[in-house]
Amino acid sequence: MNNDDQPNGTxxxxxxxVWGGIFLALFFVVSLYGxxxxxxAQKMTYSDFRARVADGQVAEVEVxxxxxxxxxxxxxxxxxxxxxxxxxxxxxxQQHGVRYAGKAPDEPNLLLYILVNALPFVLVLGVAFFALxxxxxxxxxxxxxxxxxxxxxxxxxxxxxxxxxVAGIDEAREELEEIVEFLKDPGRFAKLGxxxxxxxxxxxxxxxxxxxxxxxxxxxxxVPFFTISGSDFxxxxxGVGASRVRDMFEQAKKNAPCIVFIDEIDAVGRSRGHGLGxxxxxxxxxxxQLLVEMDGFEANEGIIIIAATNRPDVLDPAxxxxxxxxxxxxxxxxxxxxxxxxxxxxxxxxxxxxxxxxRVIARGxxxxxxxxxxxxxxxxxxxxxxxxxxxxxxxxxxDAKDKVMxxxxxxxxxxxxxxxxxxxxxxxxxxxxxxxxxxxxxxHKATIIPRGRALGMVMRxxxxxxxxxHRDKMHANxxxxxxxxxxxxxxxxxxxxxxGASGDIQYATGLARNMVxxxxxxxxxxxxxxxxxxxxxxxxxxxxxxxxxxxxxKLIDAEIRIxxxxxxxxxxDILKAQEDKLHALAQALLEYETLTGDExxxxxxTGKLDRPDxxxxxxxxxxITGGSVPRAGQRPAGSSPSALGV
Length: 646
Hints:
Blueprint: H1 11-34, E1 42-43, H2 46-54, E2 58-63, E3 68-72, E4 77-80, H3 89-95, E5 99-102, H4 110-138, E6 152-153, H5 170-184, H6 186-190, E7 199-203, H7 210-221, E8 225-229, H8 240-254, E9 258-263, H9 282-294, E10 303-309, H10 317-320, E11 327-330, H11 336-347, H12 358-363, H13 370-386, H14 394-406, H15 417-436, E12 443-447, E13 457-460, H16 471-492, H17 502-517, E14 531-535, E15 542-546, H18 550-577, H19 579-592, E16 594-596, H20 597-606
Parallel strand pairs: 1-4, 2-5, 7-10, 7-11, 8-9, 9-10
Antiparallel strand pairs: 2-3, 3-4, 6-8, 12-13, 12-16, 14-15
Helix pairs in contact: 1-4, 5-7, 8-9, 11-13, 13-14, 15-16, 15-19, 16-17, 16-18, 17-18, 18-19, 19-20
């Protein structure tokens, strides 16, 4: 625990100013004592002095080697600089009755001399002292505090988080609520022989609420709660991490029963034996000490370790065994019910218009984590503020969702009419094939407004959360992916197709390869796995590992080609049979740039689009010929996997 918490600001700078003020004060005092008695005296030339002596105006003088001081008969004091070796001065003073005396040479001011000469060294030592103090504070505070723990005792008097603030992850919350009950009433469980869990590991994707759950435990448990990051243990000095672990557990023992929360534990808990050169490196020493403290010969009664990570696959097996982390609590991405609850929690902080429906927003945000939903509500509030609205309406949430999912609109991008036509027919091809594929997800929106790195896209949203995909849906996705390229071939000719389908081709190829090599959806190859995606060296990147022979690899390539070619044929059949609807959709996109799913269905069913600003509807245009390939450097239309569009 860091015991030298200081107030806000820069304490070392304040100390430096204090010491500087002390030095300046000493210098000022010494300077005052070192001044001579001629302060405030009238200065005159030596000839003027002799003239006044001759006129009888001088009462007394004190003659020194470097200065003559004295008093006139009117009690005024004066000083002058004598001429060296003037032998006539003494007779002149005697002749006119002036009292005179000699002055001993000025003795050097020893204190001033020492201070002036020692001041540079003192300043250098002072700067070195404060720099060393800052480094020591970074290691744990205090002199030689490198090995002190950096764990902080969490006291949330304001902004306290409880389990009521945690929504959408009910199972994980129930697991941790039981730990809080253990701490509040251990006797109820001890009567039946139950022991308090020693540790709980929170596992989940980034943004799912692991740290929020830990803060809720701190708010509910009513016991000391220490928090530290896994990276705070690791230091460049050997042995510092292990020392910090020991110090952290010593602090925890003094405050038992208590909870210690280690965030991002994978920074210190990675599997041992993978060090470069010497495997017994600093990180592994820290991990060894952590393993001993969690469950070694010395019992740590009353200390519960809660850790969070999004990389459980890299953790050391000794860290995951019961007795250290008795429970692994999975914090999943919320389903539609959970998203609705999370949205309701965050929407309490913003003024909402009556038309806002959290259920509709939750349905349109599959795969969003808690952090994503919090960002969505914040973006909607910012949009409403920019539009000078007093309430956040459903339109702001829809626009914010499009911005988060598809990227910000780039209306400033200048596209030629031919490029717009090419993009419109490309996206219309995706949309029309999707409408005619029963297994495809419903279309949410189609646009030819450049968003993010795409010139246009078709967004499809599932009606419910999907946890597995069927073969018919995969074939539908393949044909939808080919819809954009097929539309370009039909309307502009095979020689005029653009690079706009690059992302679609990449998606279709990857999906077909997985169907053949991983999911056993090839009749010729059967239900066998031929490829495995494994992590690269030191966790950098990933690589495909193939288990097949050369002959089987050729068969794999042929099966992938068949799947993609069949999808191309299905898309071609659909678009050829409904070419008039393809023209209608493309014309509507050119006219309005963005169409909703209902508007696309209306155009497909009726051949026109009725909007308040278009009372006569959109007529069917004649076939458009000609086209242009998107400019180099631009991401082609429909190239985003989330857009297809797929």
